[in-house]
Structure to design on (535 residues):
């Protein structure tokens, strides 16, 4: 995907002659603070205050009627977003009495430290891991209100635990996808580079969680960000333990062990609920190949239509992201080519200057230096433009990650519906068995005690299954409501995000094009004598 790593310093290896050319342009200021300042909590607080006091109408008019596109490009459309830059992110400073601000929850990840794992290592120093300093500032009442600040140390395993707990507690929500463990990358990349990449990924992930309207108020996230020491959230049981537990429970399940009604509302845990997994697998096969309509089906036509649109949107988004990468590559190549052109003219200028014997040679050398200057300036502008293009169009890559979260929420809905269908089929089967046994028992004078006892057991199982189905239906309806609310939120945020992306992209393209045109127009004026000589 798009990355600035290969676009920021394409021509950094050009000789000093290019860099020493006078570009006749004052250093531009893009209105943004330095990376380290942008990453610090104090800079974030200052920016929140300034944004609250700025006039929205003046900002809007400056976008519609800029004095020059070349000036407008330095207006940031996403100034509220910042990313930590490297290990040396500035530490939070004590907060002064700030004016009232809208609710916020901001997280910084910094200062990775290597630590020894003494609990699972047979050899002292054999296992090690990295922990990260996580700093949080917020004014949310769930975290203690205005001026609240927390600092904790967490390892990546804690982030995995947090993600697992959120996936269980917030089914149907579009939960941001956590960073991968990247075992292969950790073996291939330099350790410092890998740790920095993971730190940046954790920072993005935690801030996405902090921006989610439901998850930011969750107890799971609050505990992760604010409670010092070992993470008190329970970890998921490992696969081997689940399989062992499932093997122990399976005989009891096969002989009719009554299930917990509340457990039916949760997804089957691989290995532990073996019989349930088999039943739901059987129900899934019957739904797909049985030719019989399930007792309970997805009847929300509006949801099914929106789901199809989401699938189509994801396909178009993937194609657009690929085209954006091609644009970035083309701009990178153009910048490199312009730089090489400028370098070639620099060398030719040196040759003409050293061997100049006539005034015409000196004039020609001066004009070639002007061409070199224009080419170098265009090269630098292309590099800046590419950096801005990556910043704005990276929103496409970000939304591909959002689509993974959307698909995960839809899978929660499908899984919950399958549980309801399975329990409904079980109820029909139980009811049929009870009726058959009652009919057989009625033919025997005085009744069949063994059949009557079996009927009572089946009725008790039927009662528990009905309770389990009621819980499963409630869970399914809850997930449906979560899906509905999340789709509405996605539509709102997508509109705002894409409008900001397009405004920034278009103004940057137009602004840098104007700057490049000005450079070549100045060169045309400087070489206008050739046109007069030709006439």
């Amino acid at each position: 995907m798009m990355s600035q790593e290969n676009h920021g310093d394409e021509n950094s290896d050009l000789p000093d002659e290019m860099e020493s050319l006078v570009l006749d342009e004052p250093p531009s200021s893009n209105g943004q603070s330095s990376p380290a300042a942008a990453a610090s909590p104090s800079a974030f607080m200052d920016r929140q205050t300034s944004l609250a006091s700025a006039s929205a109408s003046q900002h809007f008019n400056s976008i519609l009627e800029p004095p020059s596109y070349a000036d407008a490009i330095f207006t940031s459309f996403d100034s509220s977003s910042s990313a930590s830059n490297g290990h040396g992110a500035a530490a939070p400073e004590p907060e002064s009495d700030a004016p009232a601000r809208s609710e916020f929850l901001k997280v910084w990840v910094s200062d990775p430290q290597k630590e020894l794992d003494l609990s699972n290592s047979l050899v002292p120093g054999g296992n090690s891991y990295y922990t990260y300093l996580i700093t949080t500032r917020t004014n949310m009442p769930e975290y203690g209100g205005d001026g609240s600040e927390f600092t904790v140390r967490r390892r990546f395993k804690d982030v995995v635990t947090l993600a697992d707990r959120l996936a269980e507690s917030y089914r149907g929500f579009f939960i941001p996808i956590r960073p991968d463990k990247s075992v292969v990358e950790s073996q291939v990349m330099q350790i410092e580079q890998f740790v920095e990449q993971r730190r940046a990924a954790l920072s993005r992930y935690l801030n996405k969680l902090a921006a989610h309207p439901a998850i930011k108020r969750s107890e799971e996230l609050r505990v992760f960000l604010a409670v010092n020491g070992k993470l008190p959230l329970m970890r998921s049981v490992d696969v081997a333990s689940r399989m062992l537990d499932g093997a122990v429970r399976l005989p009891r399940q096969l002989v009719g062990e009554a299930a917990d009604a509340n457990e039916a509302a949760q997804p089957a845990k691989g290995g532990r609920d073996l019989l349930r997994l088999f039943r739901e697998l059987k129900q899934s096969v019957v739904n797909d190949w049985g030719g019989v309509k399930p007792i309970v089906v997805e009847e929300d036509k509006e949801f099914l239509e929106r789901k199809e649109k989401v699938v189509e949107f994801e396909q178009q988004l993937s194609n657009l992201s690929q085209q954006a990468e091609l644009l970035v590559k083309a701009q990178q190549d153009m910048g490199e080519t312009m730089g090489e052109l400028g370098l070639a003219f620099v060398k030719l200028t040196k040759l003409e200057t050293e061997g100049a014997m006539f005034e015409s040679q000196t004039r020609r050398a001066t004009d070639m230096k002007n061409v070199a200057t224009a080419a170098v300036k265009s090269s630098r502008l292309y590099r800046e433009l590419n950096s801005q293009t990556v910043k704005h169009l990276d929103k496409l890559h970000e939304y591909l990650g959002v689509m993974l979260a959307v698909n995960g929420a839809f899978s929660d809905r499908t899984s919950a519906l399958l549980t309801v269908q399975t329990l409904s089929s079980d109820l029909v089967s139980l009811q049929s068995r009870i009726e058959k046994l009652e009919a057989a028992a009625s033919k025997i004078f005085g009744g069949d005690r063994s059949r009557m006892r079996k009927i009572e057991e089946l009725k008790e199982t039927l009662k528990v299954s009905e309770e389990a189905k009621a819980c499963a239906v409630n869970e399914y309806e809850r997930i449906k409501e979560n899906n509905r609310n999340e789709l509405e939120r996605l539509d709102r945020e997508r509109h705002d995000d894409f409008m900001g992306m397009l405004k920034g992209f278009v103004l940057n393209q137009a602004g840098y094009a104007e700057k490049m045109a000005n450079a070549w127009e100045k060169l045309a004026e400087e070489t206008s004598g050739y046109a007069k000589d030709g006439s």
